């Protein structure tokens, strides 16, 4: 059995566009998974401590037979391959891959919370999800479109409908 998952992608170190392009290619190669769609890219202000470069963000829809924790481990492995260092909460990142939604599952463990706890309050996450599926709802019934309308688009700029390079 497979589930539809949504993965948030972000980067603000190195060449963020190249990091995101690499991650999309890597997602397409995950075991027991199929990359179905990738949203347009967005530039967003960093929300972390101190002055940081802007982020490049997008989201991907993935159909997978991997369970949530094995999928999380695969995402963390990809982050590690790109030099991700987890020292400062919300610090700059070479690559950030978040499991935003895993079907209609709700999960809360020390390792993983699904839906992602910041999903409903971050327009740089909601905008690409809306691009992928304007009718998408969270497991609690909240509509992505309504959450995005409430937050607006301050601080994010849609870059293009570019395909990964």
Structure commentary:
The protein is α+β, with helices and mostly antiparallel strands and 165 residues long. It has a single domain (3-160), classed as Alpha-Beta Plaits (2-Layer Sandwich), CATH 3.30.70. It has 4 helices and 8 strands; from the N terminus they run βαβββαβββααβ. It has helices at residues 16-28, 68-81, 123-132, 144-151, and strands spanning 3-11, 33-38, 41-44, 55-64, 96-102, 107-108, 113-114, 156-160. Strands 1, 2, 3, 4, 5 and 8 form a 6-stranded antiparallel beta sheet that branches. A two-stranded antiparallel ribbon has the order 6-7. Strand 6 (107-108) and strand 7 form a beta hairpin. Helix 3 (123-132) packs across helix 4 (144-151). The radius of gyration is 15 Å and the shape is globular.
Rounded to the nearest angstrom, the radius of gyration is 15 Å
What's the CATH superfamily, by name? Answer: 7,8-Dihydro-6-hydroxymethylpterin-pyrophosphokinase HPPK
Overall number of structural domains: 1
User: Which structural class matches the secondary elements?
Assistant: alpha+beta
What is the CATH domain class? Alpha Beta
| Distance from first to last alpha carbon | 31 Å
**Low-confidence runs:** none
What percentage of the residues does DSSP assign to strands (E)?
A: 25-35%
Largest sheet: number of strands, sense, barrel closure: 6 strands, antiparallel
Range of helix content: 25-40%
In DSSP terms, counting alpha (H) and pi (I) runs of 4 or more, how many helices?
4
The fold-level CATH name is Alpha-Beta Plaits
What best-fitting shape do the alpha-carbon axes yield? globular
Along the chain, the helix and strand elements come as: EHEEEHEEEHHE
Mean pLDDT: 90
Per CATH, which architecture?
2-Layer Sandwich
DSSP summary, beta strand count: 8
């Amino acid at each position: 059995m497979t589930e539809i998952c949504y993965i948030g992608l972000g980067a603000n170190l190195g060449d963020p566009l190249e990091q995101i392009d690499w991650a999309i290619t890597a997602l397409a190669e995950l075991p027991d998974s199929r990359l179905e769609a990738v949203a347009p890219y967005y530039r967003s202000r960093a929300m972390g401590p101190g002055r940081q470069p802007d982020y490049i963000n997008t989201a991907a829809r993935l159909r997978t037979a991997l369970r949530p924790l094995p999928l999380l481990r695969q995402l963390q492995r990809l982050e590690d391959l790109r030099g991700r260092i987890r020292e400062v909460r919300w610090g700059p990142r070479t690559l950030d891959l978040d499991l935003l939604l895993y079907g209609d599952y709700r999960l809360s463990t020390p390792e993983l919370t699904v839906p992602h706890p910041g999903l409903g309050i971050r327009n740089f996450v909601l905008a690409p999800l809306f691009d992928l599926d304007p009718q998408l709802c969270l497991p609690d019934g909240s509509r992505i479109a309504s959450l995005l309308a409430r937050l607006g688009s301050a601080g994010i700029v849609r870059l293009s409908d570019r395909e990964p390079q």
